[in-house]
Amino acid sequence: MPKECSVIISTYSKDRLTYVINCIKSLTKQSLPPKEIILVLDPDKELFQTYKAEVPAYVKIIISDKRGLSNARNSGVKKGEGDILAFIDDDAVADKHWLERLVENYDDPSVVGVGGVIKPLWEGNRPVWFPEELYWIIGCSYKGLPERKTSVRNPIGCNMSFRKSAFAIAGYFRSDIGRFGKKLLAGEETELSMRMLTKIPNSKIIYDPSAVVYHVVEKNRINLRYLFKRSFYEGVSKAIIGKARSSSSARLLSEDLYLKYLLKNSVPTRLKRIYSLANLCHLLVLFFSVSAVFAGYVTSKFNKG
Asked: What is the distance in angstroms between the CA of the first residue and the CA of the last residue of the chain?
């Protein structure tokens, strides 16, 4: 049975207009055309007027009930008419076969969600000190993820999709976890995915590396200050998710695998080539990031409430 897909983009600033237009253009060139393209805006009259005047008429523009990424995504979910709801960031562009690759996985009725690869589009040169294992900080797929199609706990938010029917069973994105202005909270897709897998028996989420989007990496994200802030809030987000979940083993499996990869692969490989300045920088930055995640986790874990 053919499956129709709604693509949801959300944005919060007029400054992101060029990114949004490029994203929409990439969606019009899909080998599997979307049923609809939905642009969700923060509740701001001036923001609405700007995008209404600039984006093509075929784009469905809706206003989120509240500010914040999770609230915007939830508004898109409620308005989406497709069987499959796909999400892409406002500063990303989709490969021509993106939707086709995502949707073909839903031939398996047990699949409730599918995500794919996010490759970086650097606004400048990639800094030599920035290791691929930390690409999650810039919203991209990172070294340590599976290289072949497989079942996973959750997709990455910039390139993910879910059955619309799954939201009716599991509920929506939690608004206290997702990105909100300059507060770099994350993990709303993680918590939702875990909830779907728990509430829908025998369900699974697929990671398909053939479904590709390209994510712009702005220059202001490539510095140690942003790296620390993003890492710290990742730890905070993990603690918030942890407080809401009873199964710690399911919650921490992906994080445990990632840490094991760092300890068994990333660190030893670079230690063997410690004479290289790049490898030395990578080791220091990895330690810096992991420490910041731990600090955020502990801070939130023992915070009241």
From this structure: 47
